[in-house]
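Late entry, glutamine complex.
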Amino acid sequence: HLGRIEQVDGTVHAFLHVDTDGALEAARRVDEALAAGEPPASPLAGVPLALKDVFTTSDMPTTCGSKMLAGWIPPYDATVTRRLREAGIVILGKTNMDEFAMGSSTENSAYGPTRNPWDLDRIPGGSGGGSSASLAAFEAPLAIGTDTGGSIRQPGAVTGTVGVKPTYGGVSRYGLVAFSSSLDQGGPCARTVLDAALLHEVIGGHDPLDSTSIDAPVPPVVAAAREGASGDLTGVRVGVVREFSGEGYQPGVLAAFQRAVEQLGRLGAEVVEVSCPHFDYALPAYYLIAPSECSSNLARFDGMRYGLRSRENGHSAEEVMSLTREAGFGPEVKRRIMLGTYALSAGYYDAYYGQAQKVRTLIVRDFEAAFDRVDVLVAPTTPTTAFRIGERVDDPMAMYLADLCTIPANLAGNAALSVPCGLSEDDGLPVGLQVMAPAMEDHRMYRVAAAYQ
Ligand code: GLN
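Prediction complete; structure with ligand written out below:
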């Protein structure tokens, strides 16, 4: 894999940092333990992995795709990082991402875009485009992403790979640099559903260092993926979300999705249509909640505690802070901080953030009503296939639409994944099938996705 990175990453640019020595050393330790007759630390011991550059690593820089953190080496490992190491997984390096995970194309990285291995003129999705591109380019067999509004699933869909957003609280956020704390969730990326399940069981589970971590065993996702592999979905009820179609969806995406739904029926699933009327309001609610929480979380980048400090012409602490934030943050991050600061300001809180939280409750209820009738919900992961680099950079609204289908699961906190479902007839590019399950029922979607794949 290091050889493959050497060969193609100059073009793909999936990695911000490759740790050749550290990876070889970690691999050597696994070999030595096996040679000494010790049992492998996990089923994935010795398997290489690409880690999104938003998880802290004590031996590698962690930049979050931002100039603000250029060169910063954290003093500690994230819980996800620690669990990977303890499982004997070999971390190849850190992957490119939209700055602080804000974006849908990886074009907001301060270090240049990542290219989609399917077509180098197109985006690999975002914010975790680096992780998904590394899988699609065969630079790594496993990767880790984070999904606040779709940043694991949407890159998975447009690169023809598997991406899983576990139930909120299912994977520790300790050491995951915060964007929107009530939505952020780390999760596995892979080329097969079973590989994702194996990785999910390594990183998942309770962590006392994260107060929102769920204190319960990891859902049995590996067993479910193996069960699904038999290809029998008899007795499984699948709901097709009516709201995810129509205007804005490419015909090729809808046709691939339709074929996937028919295939689920052939595997024995009972397919029904369900309506989730409030999903239409998920995108606007998200774009109040996420920027609000981001404006608060990113206040910590003050030029004092982490990374960059611009003090030229700064005569006071306030000036140093303001110069640092001016120089360190890119345009999208600044846009979100301003939107969020406005939405949270006195007199507007109830009208914006409070209202969005109410919409969030309605979306939770839509899911509850749907899951009374069906075991899982399905939808396209994205309305379109990978768009061209540069096509949406000047149009934030068009960029935000990439997450139309993924955001409801973040707002409600339930589990969702994307599994490849063939190529679009429009342009020959990959399409993703999204499967959603209730909170802590992650295994349901793994079973269905494994049967499908
Ligand atoms: N594209 C969405 C955004 O820009 C989602 C990002 C994410 O999931 N981290 O906020």
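The mean pLDDT is 97. Will revisit in the morning.
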